[in-house]
């Protein structure tokens, strides 16, 4: 009876959810130094994952929250990130109806959330992913040792702030990162203005001297509007400094002179989701304008279709092509992979649970 009482009390006060996504399909890539590449792969539309999230009611509108999420590869069963269990998210915090939410741990940046949740009709996945040209590599997507505060929503508006410690011995600033976000979501309109700042310095270690570099700074505005017959998307990003616009694959085309990552560029996306049958088409045009002396611009055109077999299961097909200029080296990837060439075709299935 005593054990049963404790169990009933825990069930009344806390809630834990197990969730996940299994996404696998066929990818065909063309145009890279390795020629034609065809493979079965995982995480094309969204990375296959297993997660745990929970809340505990602490009373007076205050709750304890946590989330732990690991990525895996459905094609071979391995972890998405070697030697790391909860590589996608791992945080704990407090949430108040009146004071907002504070979380600590490994978390998404405001920059990536705006790209995947607001800017991209492909949701940062499939061949048309915004990640092919917009800056989203590494710590631009997720950052460890982060403290994130989110305000309550009022009149559709909310704000977010992130600060991540670099945790490098001998330096309080090396490797640190901070970001801000202003969000609006009301009716058919969803918009975000975000800023991300990454310190690229490394502290001295033994006989290796400290390395001082320019920061990477990204400012992005993203908006979508649902007209019912079509959902329109737009995004604009200004990227300045070291690591503000990475090249996912160092030299995918085997150029004699490898492409150089831009330290001053602008990105623009125009796209749409168009309902059709038991699903919707996804399409977008993305342009990267490299403002450095190298002028390594790129354009991407993409089209895809997601068919809903049920509320949890969908089948998809997508295609994208990138046109690189002046020795630029961008590739057509998907949500989980950077890709190997300037063209890619995907077909697959995904199930959420």
Automatic annotation (TrEMBL):
Organism the protein comes from: Duganella lactea
Entry-linked Gene3D superfamilies: Porin (2.40.160.10)
SUPFAM superfamilies linked: Porins (SSF56935)
Keyword list, A-Z: Cell outer membrane, Ion transport, Membrane, Porin, Signal, Transmembrane, Transmembrane beta strand, Transport
Span of domain Porin: 5-326
Protein origin, superkingdom: Bacteria
Quaternary organization: Homotrimer.
Keyword hit for tRNA processing: no
Pfam families: Porin_4 (PF13609)
Protein name: Porin
Subcellular compartments: Cell outer membrane
Membrane topology: Multi-pass membrane protein
């Amino acid at each position: 009876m005593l054990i049963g009482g404790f169990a009933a009390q825990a069930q009344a006060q806390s809630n834990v959810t197990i969730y996940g996504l299994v996404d696998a399909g066929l990818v065909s890539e063309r145009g890279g130094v390795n020629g034609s590449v065809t493979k079965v792969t995982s995480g094309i539309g969204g990375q296959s994952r297993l997660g745990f999230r929970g809340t505990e009611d602490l009373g007076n509108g205050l709750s304890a929250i946590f989330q732990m999420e690991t990525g895996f590869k459905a094609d071979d069963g391995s972890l998405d990130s070697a030697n790391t269990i909860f590589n996608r998210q791992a945080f704990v915090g407090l949430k108040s109806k009146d004071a907002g939410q504070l979380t600590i741990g490994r978390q998404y940046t405001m920059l990536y959330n705006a790209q995947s949740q607001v800017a991209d009709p492909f949701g940062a996945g499939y061949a048309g992913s915004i990640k092919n040209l917009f800056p989203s590599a590494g710590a631009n997507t997720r950052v460890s040792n982060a403290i994130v505060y989110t305000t309550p929503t009022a009149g559709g508006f909310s704000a977010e702030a992130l600060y991540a410690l670099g945790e490098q011995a001998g330096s309080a600033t090396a490797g640190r990162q901070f970001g801000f976000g202003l969000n609006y979501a009301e009716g058919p309109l969803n918009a975000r203005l975000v800023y991300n700042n990454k310190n690229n310095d490394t502290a001295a270690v033994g006989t290796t001297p400290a390395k001082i570099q320019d920061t990477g700074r990204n400012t992005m505005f993203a908006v979508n509007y649902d007209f019912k017959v079509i959902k329109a998307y737009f995004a604009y990003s200004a990227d300045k400094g070291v690591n503000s616009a990475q090249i996912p694959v160092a030299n995918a085309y085997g150029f004699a002179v490898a492409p150089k990552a831009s330290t001053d560029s602008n990105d623009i996306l125009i796209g749409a989701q168009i309902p059709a049958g038991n699903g919707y088409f996804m399409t977008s045009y993305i342009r990267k304008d490299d403002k450095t002396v190298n002028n390594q611009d790129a354009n991407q055109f993409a089209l895809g279709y997601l068919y809903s077999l049920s509320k949890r299961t969908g089948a998809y097909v997508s295609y994208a092509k990138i046109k690189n200029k002046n020795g630029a080296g961008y590739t057509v990837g998907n949500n989980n992979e950077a890709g190997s060439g300037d063209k890619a075709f995907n077909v697959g299935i995904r199930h959420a649970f």
